[in-house]
Design a protein that fits this description.
The complex is a heterodimer. By secondary structure, chain A is α+β, with helices and mostly antiparallel strands. Chain A has helices spanning 24-30, 58-61, 66-72; strands spanning 2-7, 13-18, 50-53, 83-85, 99-101. Chain B has a single domain, classed as Orthogonal Bundle (Cytochrome p450), CATH 1.10.630.10. Chain B is 46% helix and 9% strand. The chains are: A alpha+beta, B alpha+beta.
Chain lengths: 107, 407
């Protein structure tokens, strides 16, 4: 398990234990965290699980792939330097404690 | 989409289904539904338990889910609720083909979606914006001087089917034939017609498969027939099942949606003006109209015994998420029948969700947006032709048969 903190756009914080191997997106969906839609279910086909990784965690979370980067260009909320699609971040022991901020809208 | 084949023989209610939950709701077929389908959907939340076991003359028995949260959960948990075998089209058990990618579950599913997703990704759809806008204006040119049109026939149908033919890289002169076939399969509610049309469609798609194998191009048909999911060649049946599903999915849904929306616009001049006056809010307008005019359903089969909202279901039971009703769930969308373009954003279930979420969702949103923008720009003031009685199609895609407009 790794502790993931989701901070919604209105400031609400959700601290969730997410099994290692799941994605940040799955952690939100399985715990009914509002703010991640994941319309395509993690297929890298929709850009509705957009999140901003806390800067302190951005290196550990890694860089988006070319396909992910292209998809982020079409996200509904502004793309920022630490923007990621949360379905593409696998939870590892290294990410225990990670904080992600959720955008105002996903679609 | 609900099946259009008649249910024959005696309906057997399994012993684990409590008799008080058995209903014949009449979705897609009863007189009450066909009089005003979305009003009917909204009313289900007042007069029906949230989960019932329902069947109809054309729909086999299944658990019907009316609550947003239930559908949201079911659609996102394919390990419990599988889409395998849930496709609504009758197939010969001796020559069975899967409806792909719907009837393939993760992780295999992704290999198939990966072949077609890039052609309808948000970025790919953005690149189509200019050509969709052009087609919309060509169509408007053809009737604007007449002072009226049959919207369904002259705009609602040719716009999405034309765009789709372009994406498929198939000739636009196939449009009338495609429309006739779609009607036969989705709305005839007649086994003989459905079987005959299925024969014609099969013959045509097999011809197209051979052509695109011989001469590949950048279109969607070619991406399917020459695609190698996970590097493996598809069997002829797989290729056919994939192409058939994408083909049928592109023919009727945006059509039905546009017809609902323009019927509503014609009856609500103040709301038309609101849309014209707030161009920056167009994405919210589209999302809200897609919520209130949802046209499809989503079927699943239980992989295991499961209890949902206190209802005990058994492995093998069928479920249908009544997506148009879920989008009227008053717990999620307060005052659900009010069309409110400033509603707090909640994801709509119009395109289902999870791994099997609609492949064409981005395209559908873009088409809907462009149609509203261009039509209102060219013809800001219009109404339903006086004396018209609106009738709705029975069957798995909810929509009006004709939308005669005058201006």
């Amino acid at each position: 398990m790794a502790l993931v903190t989701y901070v919604r756009h209105d400031g609400t914080r959700h601290e969730v234990d997410v099994p290692v191997g799941d994605t940040i997106m799955q952690g939100a969906i399985n715990n009914m965290v509002d703010g991640i839609v994941a319309e395509c279910g993690g297929g890298l086909a929709c850009a509705t699980c957009h999140c901003y990784v806390d800067e302190a965690w951005a290196d550990k979370a890694g860089q988006p792939s070319a396909t992910e980067s292209e998809m982020l260009e079409a996200a509904a909320s502004e793309r920022k330097p630490t923007s990621r699609l949360s379905c593409q971040i696998n939870v590892t022991d290294e990410l225990n404690g990670i904080v992600v901020y959720l955008p105002e809208t996903q679609f | 989409m609900a099946s259009s084949a008649p249910v024959t023989g005696e309906i057997k209610i399994p012993p684990h289904v409590p008799p008080e939950l058995v209903r014949k709701l009449g979705i897609t077929e009863s007189a009450e539904f066909l009089a005003a389908p979305h009003k009917f959907m909204a009313a289900l939340h007042q007069n029906c338990p949230p989960i019932v076991y329902s069947y109809g003359d054309h729909s086999p028995p299944a658990w019907n889910l009316l609550k947003y949260d239930d559908a949201y959960f079911v659609l996102r948990h394919p390990e419990i609720f599988t889409a395998e075998g849930s496709g609504p089209f009758p197939r010969d058990p001796d020559d069975y083909w899967k409806i792909i990618p719907l009837e393939i579950e993760p992780p295999e599913h992704r290999k198939y979606r990966a072949l077609v997703d890039p052609l309808v990704s948000p970025k790919a759809v953005l690149a189509l914006e200019g050509s969709i806008r052009r087609l919309a204006n060509e169509l408007i040119d053809s009737f604007i001087g007449k002072g009226g049109c049959d919207f369904a026939k002259e705009f609602g149908r040719p716009l999405p089917v034309g765009v789709f033919l372009d994406i498929m890289a198939l000739p636009r002169d196939m449009m009338d034939e495609f429309v006739r076939w779609a009607m036969g399969l989705l709305h005839a509610q007649d086994k003989v017609i459905a079987a005959q049309v299925m024969g014609e469609v099969t013959q045509y798609l097999n011809k197209v498969i051979a052509e695109k194998k011989a001469q590949p191009d950048a279109g969607l048909v070619s991406a399917i027939v020459n695609g190698r999911p996970g590097g493996e060649e598809m069997s002829a049946r797989e290729t056919f099942g994939f192409l058939f599903f994408v083909w049928i999915a592109g023919l009727d849904t945006v059509f039905a949606t546009l017809n609902h929306i323009f019927l509503w616009l014609a009856k609500n001049p103040d709301r038309r003006q609101e849309i014209i006056d707030t161009p920056d809010n167009i994405n919210n307008v589209v999302e809200e109209l897609l919520r209130v005019f949802t046209v499809t359903f989503s079927g699943r089969t239980l992989r295991q015994d499961y209890e949902l909202r206190g209802v005990k279901m058994k492995k093998g039971d069928k479920l249908t998420s009544i997506l148009p009703a879920c989008n009227y769930d008053p717990e999620i969308f307060p005052n659900p029948e009010e069309v409110n373009f400033h509603r707090p954003r909640k994801p709509v279930l119009t395109f289902a969700g999870g791994a099997h979420s609609c492949l064409g969702a981005h395209l559908a949103r873009m088409e809907t947006k462009i149609c509203i923008q261009e039509f209102l720009r060219r013809i800001p003031d219009f109404q339903v032709k006086p004396g018209t009685r609106i009738e709705y199609w029975p069957g798995g895609v909810v929509g009006p048969k004709e939308v005669p407009l005058v201006w």
